[in-house]
Amino acid sequence: MATCSADLAPLLGPNATAAADYICNKFSDTSFAVDNTYLLFSAYLVFSMQLGFAMLCAGSVRAKNTMNIMLTNVLDAAIGGLFYYLFGFAFAFGSPSNGFIGRHHFALRSVPSSSFDYSNFLYQWAFAIAAAGITSGSIAERTQFVSYLIYSSFLTGFVYPVVSHWFWATDGWASALRTDDFLFGSGVIDFAGSGVVHLVGGVAGLWGALIEGPRIGRFDHSGRSVALRGHSATLVVIGTFMLWFGWYGFNPGSFNKISSFYTSGNYYGQWSAVGRTAVTTTLAGCTAALTTLFGKRILTGHWNVTDVCNGLLGGFAAITAGCSVVEPWAAIICGFVAAWVLISCNKL
């Protein structure tokens, strides 16, 4: 602000200093408003992914379990909202604290502040319930309702917030935002949550599946596996497109602001980085979808839309960590590798 006033004052004549301060303050206010609006819009996009999860999961299960899986997705959002408000945001971003867990801002106390506004809470809540939504599909068709309530509360109110504190808080033990004592000299760069969101949800889902065991009918009496097909490929495709749409809030929105310029008067600024992040996200997902399509065709002899949808989402999850720093051509490689990892894991 001082630099802005100093540059502007010589151009304004009488009362130059006061006029320059007034104009620069107005520009600063506008910048805050634009950035908060951008973050709120990104939060709305990420929240729309809940509809994507609901459609994807509903289409992937048998018809008799549709209502149950839809209910769990609604509960993720509702329970997550309350528990992330009471505890989660504080555990994640309640600085100053220790490297393991935050300890301020319970129930949004002292928010808004110079560090956080309500838009930050809403955006991070949408991330928390996305992690819970990932897990709901892993344990579909074999989870008691009360047990799922307990799980969703614990994941959104404690597990995800603690992990996000480690990597995204300014004093997290693995954070690249620390001022000193970086892990491996740099800290962990997970820009939008390949590890913090998707890996947390995936690991929780893996443990849930291991504890609960296979779905009824997954194996016949001789122990051979039986394919349990989802009842609606249409819902799977609709859900995939909704998740694709929401990912443009997930990855580009993780900048938290858009109005910053790198060099005054230059066309290149934070808005360019946001755009490039959207491009790398798109290219990784598209490459993974096509690689999965043709890879599965070579291996099985069939074209399968469900495989393509899974490959697309796998590419998005893979690029999420580095979407802001990789070049577009590198995003294509990332999507290609992610698709073959997915295909290999499906063989297990």
TrEMBL record:
Membrane-traversing stretches:
38-61, 82-101, 121-141, 148-168, 188-211, 232-250, 316-343
Q: Which UniProt keywords apply?
A: Ammonia transport, Membrane, Transmembrane, Transmembrane helix, Transport
Q: How does it sit in the membrane?
A: Multi-pass membrane protein
- Source superkingdom: Eukaryota
Localized where? Cell membrane; Membrane
- Specify the Ammonium transporter AmtB-like domain's residue ranges: 38-345
Q: Tell me which Gene3D superfamilies the record gives.
A: Ammonium transporter AmtB like domains
Q: State a single Gene Ontology molecular function.
A: ammonium channel activity
Chief subcellular location equals: membrane
GO cellular component terms attached to this protein's record: plasma membrane
- GO biological process: one example: ammonium homeostasis
Q: Answer whether the UniProt record assigns the keyword Isomerase to this protein.
A: no
Q: Which InterPro entries match?
A: Ammonium/urea_transptr, Ammonium_transpt, Ammonium_transpt_CS, NH4_transpt_AmtB-like_dom
Family designation: Belongs to the ammonia transporter channel (TC 1.A.11.2) family.
Q: What is the protein's name according to its record?
A: Ammonium transporter
Source organism? Gossypium lobatum
Species classification: Eukaryota, Viridiplantae, Streptophyta, Embryophyta, Tracheophyta
